[in-house]
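hey m, so remember when u said the C-alpha cells were messed up on ur end? i reran from scratch. heres the input so u can diff it against urs
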Amino acid sequence: MHRNFILFACLILRFLVFELGAQSVSFWAPKDSVAPSTERYRADIQVTNFRFIVGTQFNLSWDSTLLQLDSVGNFGLPLKLEDHFGLVSKSKGLLSFQWFDESLKGVTLADRKVIFSLYFKVKGPRGVRSPLNFVDTPTNIRETADSSYKAVTAFYLDGFVDLRPPSTTAVSRINPNVLFIHAIYPNPVSNGEVNLSWYAVKPGASLLTLTDIRGSILRQWSPQTSAGNQTMTLSLAGLPAGGLYQLHLKQGNIVSSRQILYMPPD
C-alpha cells in the first residue's frame, strides 16, 4: 500500500513538472537612453528561458530617421550575417532574422543572454525616442520551435532608445506624463487617411510634423490641443512612396513620436 502510494505520488509529480515546465521563450529589446554626445549605440537582443531551441525567426523595426544601422554582431548563437539576417530594408528601419540549428539537438542559453547586437549610428535629432520593436511587417514570421519540432510560446518585449538632449531647457524632450501619442490607426495604412489619438496634460498650440526616413519634412499640421485625450484624422494622400514615416507631435518643448507604415494599394 505504501509502495503504491509512493509510485502514484511520483507519477503525479512527474505530470506536474512536465505541465508546469512547458516553456515560453522571451525575446527582449533594450529600453535605453544615450547621452547627447553619443555617436554610436549598441542594442543587445536578449533571451530568457531559451531551452533546447532549434529555430526562431522574427522582424525588428526602429526609427531610421534617428538610428542608422551600421552592422550586426556580438553573436550568442552560431550565426552568419549573410545566412541569418535580412538587411534589404535596413535603410527603412527593418531587419529580419531567421536561425535554425543544423545539429537538430537544440541550443540552450543562459537567461538574458545576448543572441545578437545591432550597432547604430545615432543621427538625431535629440530629445526624441526611437522604438525598437518586434513587428509583423512586411509579413508575420514570428515563430520559435524546440527540439521536439513543436512551436513554443514566445513573448516579444519591445524596447526603445531615448536620444537625450544636451539640456532640459529650450530643447525638445520626452515626457509621456505631459504629452503622449497613444495610437496611430490603422497602421499600416493604405487608404490615404490615418487616425491619431494622443494625451496632453494641458491645452495649447501643437505642431504635428511628418518626416521621411531621411528626416525631410513632408507635412505639418497645427492642431489646437485641449487638455486630456483627443483624436484627429490626417490625410496621407500623395506621399511619394510606400514605406516608413515618422510623426512627431510637439507642444512647447515636449515631443512624442510614432512610426507610420504607409502601404498604398498597387
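this time it looks ok to me. The CA atoms of residues 143 and 213 lie 29 Å apart. if urs says something different then somethings off w ur setup not the seq
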